[in-house]
Amino acid sequence: MAPKSATPRATGTSRAAAKAARREQLLSVAKNLYAQHGFHGVRLDDLGKGAGISAPAVYRHFESKEAVLEELLVGISDYLNSGGDAIITRHDNDAAASALIELIDFHVAFAMSEPELIRIQDRDLAALPEASRRTVRRLQRSYVSRWAEVVARANPGWSLDAATVRVHAVFGMINSTPYQARRSSAEVVGVELRAAAQAALGIG
């Protein structure tokens, strides 16, 4: 026979899982609505309706629609920065070009799978509270800086400033293309983005 505490513990675990799933659902709904209508064009009621719950129920997960925006934008900035760091760490003893190829693959995969987040960041970053906006900017600077260091190592004749300019240019190209080339197949877009990025960063 199971201990008496097993059922309450299991119930508590189930509730926590359900709450986490609902939170993720709200983030997904917000991502799509913010991308379509802009942060200021979406109400908390809209988020609740999209998730099949009432507006007051949304407050069980987020204190405001600004808090939802914070989680989306700070979260994706942290994901990119942490992912980039992990790739670079894995390639510490390899040729820089190997790390750069994987970094390009990583960012292209992100841009093609999360175009809504890119649109939200481009348009609605200013809607974040100042502290969160600073956090996003800090993470972005770190991400660019880490890329630029790898690019400079892969191209010994380039200065760090030159490498940084190239990285910004490549990010602009990768981040904008999934929206601009929606009539092309995802496979073609991915292949061409990777090839163009490698050429721009001196390893093509």
Automatic annotation (TrEMBL):
Keywords: DNA-binding. Gene3D superfamilies: Homeodomain-like, Tetracycline Repressor, domain 2. This is TetR/AcrR family transcriptional regulator. It comes from the Bacteria. The keyword rRNA-binding does not apply. Pfam families: TetR_C_24, TetR_N. InterPro entries: Homeodomain-like_sf, HTH-type_TetR-like_transc_reg, HTH_TetR, KstR2_TetR_C, Tet_transcr_reg_TetR-rel_C_sf. The keyword DNA-binding applies. GO terms for molecular function: DNA-binding transcription factor activity; transcription cis-regulatory region binding.
